[in-house]
Design brief:
Layout (H helix, E strand, L loop, with lengths): L2 E2 L2 H13 L4 H15 L3 E2 L2 H11 L2 E7 L5 H17 L6 E5 L11 E7 L3 H15 L3 E5 L4 E5 L7 H11 L1 E2 L2
Parallel strand pairs: 1-2
Antiparallel strand pairs: 3-5, 3-6, 3-8, 4-5, 6-7
Helix pairs in contact: 1-2, 1-3, 2-3, 5-6
Length: 174
């Protein structure tokens, strides 16, 4: 009789991978997930399969900053952008507000984002929605610090082009 794999089990493993990346469980998790995908007697719904495939996708790391705003306002806008992205829903990966300059005592004026490659387009659309709603200029930098996109108006952020630029040269495989 086939065994059923529940989404909650995969989410539990994903949480361990995110919160305890150096643990034995987290290090062995990709092999376990690949094994689950190959196992013919294991049943799972399409959402669970998609979640596993997303977890196994390459990751992309980038930052979003507000170069034209003062530090205090940039802190507020980083929080607002974080809320905007979270409101879009979905499992984007890890998004946090950070300090651009570690020597300052501010709450954080940039967003540091690490996520699976398939989610990049959706997050980039969230960035475009933020600009359309609030009108602030943003700069998107890849993990190497190179500017990938700069936008002062929503039409300046081409979600597909930004996603392609980020995934092409700034991804790492899990």
């Amino acid at each position: 009789m086939p065994t059923r794999l529940e989404r909650a089990t995969v989410e539990q493993l994903q949480k361990i991978m995110q919160e305890q990346p150096g643990s034995t469980y987290a290090l062995e998790a990709p092999d376990v997930l690949r094994g689950w995908l190959r196992e013919s007697t294991l049943q799972m719904d399409d959402d669970t399969r998609h979640l596993i495939e997303t977890i196994l996708s390459p990751t992309v790391t980038f930052t979003v900053g507000f170069p034209e705003l003062g530090l205090a306002v940039a802190n507020q806008e980083a929080d607002r952008l974080l809320d905007t992205l979270r409101a879009k829903g979905g499992s984007f990966g890890h998004i946090e507000v950070k300090r651009e300059d570690p020597t300052t005592l501010d709450a954080g004026s940039i967003l540091a984002i690490t996520l699976a490659a398939p989610a990049v387009v959706e997050v980039t659309r969230g960035l475009r929605d933020y600009i359309a709603a609030w009108g602030n200029s943003i700069v998107i930098k890849g993990s190497d610090g190179m500017v990938v996109a700069r936008g002062t108006a929503a039409q300046n952020i081409d979600a597909a082009a930004v996603a392609a630029a980020l995934t092409k040269s700034h991804s790492t495989t899990r």
